[in-house]
Amino acid sequence: MKHDLLIIGAGPGGYIAAIRAAQLGLNVACVEKEPRLGGTCLRVGCIPSKALLESSEKYLETQHALAAHGIKISGAELDLPTMQARKDGVVKSLTDGVAFLFKKNKITRYEGNASFVSKNTVQVGDQIIEAERIIIATGSKAAQLRGIEFDFDRVGTSTEALSYPEVPEHLVIIGAGYIGLEIGSVWKRLGSKVTVLEFLPIILPGMDGEIRDEAFKMLKKQGLEFRLGTKVTGARATEKGAIVEIEGSEPIECDRVLVAAGRLPNTDGLNLAAAGLATDEKGRISVDAHYRTQVENIYAIGDVIAGPMLAHKAEEEGVACVEGIVTGYGHVNYDAIPAVAYTDPEIAGVGKTEEQLKEAGIEYKKGTFPFIANGRAKAIAQTQGKVKILADARTDRILGVHIIGPRAGDLIAEAVAAIEFGATAEDLRRTSHAHPTLAECLKEAAFAVEGAALSM
Fold it and tell me: Which of these is catalytic: 69, 331, 402, 435?
């Protein structure tokens, strides 16, 4: 078979690129090794974790939060199989949706592992597929630490941690990044003792420091136990559970271990050398500003190239890459790519952190506004956290926005749009915001940039 464009990988970057290419008139094919389309994000990552986070939050509400609203509940019980079944149903509906979109857009789907034969040819099982252009969008895989003996049951990755058949009495999480804290929050709400081990002296590396420090205090108050600056030297399953070995400290016996120590580009089995490609020292494929590799007809997007490993970043690159191929122009503004941790409260950021601005020697103004001073936050009894806006001291242009608080993942969209369109803090504070809404906190933080918050 011969196609105009072949995409290897049907995750968020790959399937979005395939759909956009088909819309632009190309004969498109996509190779995916898993039976279900959607990649790690839809099948075993972003979507199932958010489904469990929502369900576990509702369970926690029945235990502690509803009485203050005048709602008395007795006898509420956890039905974990039903909770897991709901999560699986959400995943199935979305992966089925991607399959429908492939059919609607007449995208040819090949199931199996792709291996390059040449720069224009890929083998999938017994089939040889030719394409004028090829996009590599194979995503990432969980990093494996030295000394960790995975049995993918008692000691495993986020994939296993999203499908535990029972609530672990004691869950140890190696890594205090987004994945570890989100999944840790799920099982803590459902009744686990959760211990988070992190090699660095901080949680959520890369996040704005002021926001990160608030998150650390809040998560500790919720009952997550943190041991920072801790080097894990080994972990293995035992007859009764698992054991984690720590440098300079006693081993920890627990029920299960989640290894969430980052992710690595996934290029396993692609036989890149046959296409004239190689990876850098971090296993990434090098590309230019148009996502072209050193081989002129081969492109790469998403987690296999440099940059944050985020599903929406891969989607933006997929669209930009394809539009560049067809129209000659495609662009991604990497200063306007948000990041969100779906803990409670949620944490979100876009643009530069305060630490980055200081390091670059950029003079800035800062405005913050707490949710506790917001009417909507009080009405819904979610008043933890703040909005923080960083603006250029000379031009007033917004350089970064960081939020910890209710629905931060939704609120950050306004900040992303502001940065994308080059808005100033004055632009934001002169924009009407409905009252009462959580979004008013952004308006107030924009006023605070000039030291003039209206509600404080």
Answer: 435
